[in-house]
Write a structure and sequence with these properties.
The chain has 107 residues and is an alpha+beta fold. 24% of the residues lie in helices and 34% in strands. A hairpin with a 5-residue loop joins strand 3 and strand 4 (58-60). The chain is flat, with a radius of gyration of 15 Å.
Length: 107
């Protein structure tokens, strides 16, 4: 099985209401439960980023498609990884997307 990086993109906000936070966590835990042992690293959300460009120029706030978090999963191939991502709870918000890339073992 190969490993794949799911990079969540979007500029949403974490729910502030306790019931909404619980519902969001329940959705993520349910999805991770569906994926089972395919989840290598459940990942985490990330804070606001900075991007360093050639010449040392720095962009704040992640640009037009900021990273929101990541997960690492195992799958047969990229098509299997894509199929597994289709039920990701982050996709319930149209402002978000999941980028999927194979992890190439170098060491």
């Amino acid at each position: 099985m190969a490993k794949f990086l799911y990079v969540y993109h979007g500029s949403g906000k974490m729910p502030t209401d306790e019931a909404e936070r619980k519902a969001a966590m329940d959705a993520w835990n349910g999805w991770y439960g569906q994926l089972g042992s395919a989840v290598v690293d459940g990942g985490n959300p990330v804070g606001m980023s900075k991007t360093v460009l050639p010449g040392g120029k720095v962009e704040n706030n992640g640009g037009s498609n900021p990273t929101a978090g990541y997960t690492i999963v195992e799958a047969k191939d990229i098509d299997d990884a894509v199929a597994k991502a289709k039920d990701c709870p982050i996709l319930m918000d149209p402002a978000f997307s999941v980028e999927i890339a194979p992890i190439i073992e170098m060491m």
